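hi support,

uploading two proteins for the ticket. first:
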Amino acid sequence: MIHFIIGGARSGKSSYAENLARNSGSDVIYIATAQAYDDEMQRRIQQHKNQRPGAWVTVEEPIEISDVIRNESAVNNCLLIDCLTLWVTNLLSADKDITDYKDRLVDAIGRVKGDIILVSNETGMGVVPMGELTRRYCDEAGWLHQKIAALADQVVLMVAGIPVVIKPVSTDFKHNS
């Protein structure tokens, strides 16, 4: 099953995704994309680490998440990626070919043998940013979100800690794991 959890900052995305993973009955592989460039971000990362169960395996990978997905995909694994917008930031900062990386990610997600939960920030509900780099960031994240949502079995928008299902799991479709 492919779950896509999207929402604004402090909307409850990570907590909701972690509860899904915890209740999956599978071994959880947490793929963290954040990089700590300052003390405040280091504190945020540490807070996320502290709230994860000790039995979960954490893989910190800011760029090559499609490789981690391929390597860790197994029927009895639940992969949790937090978060895709930080990943897009990492790609832009490293001047990577974002189209190639997005295509590789979508391909890897489509081949997952167990469950996968993807978390991302909704950046498209505000005004169009003034700066070129910020506009590109919002565009790239938005296009990625559309691809992930199309592929996902379920899409949940988090609003003020409340999950709003915007793409329910179809009762007519069974995802081949």
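and the second one:
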Amino acid sequence: MGEILEIKKYAKENHVPIMQDAGIDFLCDYIEKHGVKRILEIGTAIGYSAIRFALISHEIKVVTIEREEELYQKAKMNIQKMQLEDQIEVILGDALTVEVEGEYDLIFIDAAKSQYQKFFLKYCSALAKEGVIVTDNLSFHGMVENPELTHNRNTRQLIHKIQAYIEFLKNLEDYETTFYSIGDGVSVTKKKEGRG
């Protein structure tokens, strides 16, 4: 697993946000326990989480979307190094305009936090019947619960958007959401019984 450690080291040194250990371990356990096979990821970054998902089982296929060319290229390189090109497809583009086909057992939202609600609304129709939508960074380093931790205006605006997204999830009629204070705050949203 030396390659995974290399990717984590690169992320730390270059300030590329990747999932915290507790969060990614929780998600990988969920994928394994629930037999998840098809994953759509919004926000590839350097491919760390997509690689971790693909390593769980050869049967897992990941489609992941990244809008920044530099990150996209680095992700492609990391995926090739791990020889996972057959399992992971990286799409370069804005997730709000990209079109994907098929249904997914798990949709993972881990991109621009200010757009979380738009991502959810765009991709929830691609969710398989028993599928889930997982969102990361809902705690945002503890600032969502304690906004007084920041005096930065842009960060405060971002926190308001995450808080609004959490309220949006809580009030969805056709879905139910469980919130976990794991890693940087993770939610798991699924369709209610008999809906869709």
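thanks. also noticed: The longest helix spans residues 153-170.
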